[in-house]
Amino acid sequence: MILILPPGATIGIVGGGQLGRMSAIAAARLGFRAHIFTPEAGGPASQVAATTTVAEYTDHEALTRFAAAVDLITFEFENLPAASLDLLAGQKPVHPSPEILRISQDRVLEKKFLNDIGIPTASWTAIQTAADISTLPGILKTTRLGYDGKGQALIRTPAEAQAAYDGLNPKPLVLEALVDFHSEISVIVARNASGAITSFDPVENRHKNHILDITLAPAPLPLETLAEATRIARHIAESLNLIGLLAVEMFVTATGTLLVNEIAPRPHNSGHWTLDACPASQFEMHIRAVGGLPLPPATRHSDAVMKNLVGPRDMATWPAILATPGLIPHHYGKSEAREGRKMAHFTRLFPRGSLPGEFGLEAALRLTENPDA
């Protein structure tokens, strides 16, 4: 039996950051209440939610109370104990499933799953000991808990390999071959329990200090490449039997080949542009998908450039951003702008079909990088 949430129902969101915040706002627009489970009091999601349970993710008694107070449960990031989601799933529906979480939070399981369903990735090797590192250069990564460039190291020599192996934890590790890199793109897919599926246009992601800096929607790539990226992302979602939202990050090689880098079963930073450029954002699609609601087409009415604001240096531009016509600001409600911390983003919209085109991609980037231009 497919659960269809009625208006007034409560959606439990595990995690209290900005993705939970924007999901809670989307839930409210659709007539639902959001109940946040987080160790952090007064965090971004709690500021806009009806209720918050403040407890550690391993607190089984608090998790049980939380499950009893909601109608279904979802999550906003992957670094959660899967056993805690198992406990919740024994009491209320959890979407996406704990099984999908397990795959996405372990690089070995993730890559094996992708390769098993015919999805190409960069060549990789599971690393149990330093002696297993036999191919250089490469990127050595933790199998778990890595994000925004954390938990990985570029290694070129045996000495660098040993130092990286000693310094990276938890183990085991994964060694990935270097990719002849042209660009990085992502596709966000929504799928509900009835099997209805929709996906947003592929976008290009540009990073600074290993953190997403700018997203270009749509990605300025050939139509056949964009179509193949969409096909790959939908195939992964269907193979997972996904209920919810899935972000699929891919490398585009110099020859135009697509290699999947990783998957994230939740709203994603590279989808923030959808808040302003689409009738239904990624967050609304996520709530619709987990709640059993119909999924509208994931269309965009505008092209967009999204710019992340990270740490104190970027946040120093906030007054100029607020004063600049054409910029659409989104603040996450975090009180302290620490180095490397995502604090906010803004979006600039352009007529559909104009990136690249009438306005030009480089002109759009200049406008985004200089808010008062």
Fraction in beta strands: 25-35%
Q: In this structure, how is the largest beta sheet organized?
A: 9 strands, antiparallel
What is the level-2 CATH architecture name of the largest domain? 2-Layer Sandwich
Structural class, by secondary structure, is alpha+beta
The stretches of 5 or more residues where confidence is low (pLDDT under 50) are none
Query: Which fold does the CATH topology of the largest domain refer to?
Result: D-amino Acid Aminotransferase, Chain A, domain 1
Mean pLDDT: 92
SSE blueprint and pairings:
Blueprint: E1 10-14, H1 18-29, E2 33-38, E3 51-54, H2 60-68, E4 72-75, H3 82-89, H4 98-104, H5 107-116, E5 124-127, E6 138-142, E7 152-155, H6 158-167, E8 173-177, E9 181-191, E10 197-199, E11 203-208, E12 211-217, H7 223-239, E13 244-253, E14 258-264, H8 274-277, H9 282-290, E15 302-310, H10 311-315, H11 318-322, E16 327-331, E17 342-351, H12 361-369
Parallel strand pairs: 1-2, 1-4, 2-3
Antiparallel strand pairs: 5-8, 6-7, 6-8, 9-10, 9-11, 9-13, 11-12, 12-15, 13-14, 15-17, 16-17
Helix pairs in contact: 1-9, 3-4
Short précis:
The protein is of the alpha+beta class. The protein has helices spanning 18-29, 60-68, 82-89, 98-104, 107-116, 158-167, 223-239, 274-277, 282-290, 311-315, 318-322, 361-369, and strands spanning 10-14, 33-38, 51-54, 72-75, 124-127, 138-142, 152-155, 173-177, 181-191, 197-199, 203-208, 211-217, 244-253, 258-264, 302-310, 327-331, 342-351. The model has no long low-confidence stretch (mean pLDDT 92).
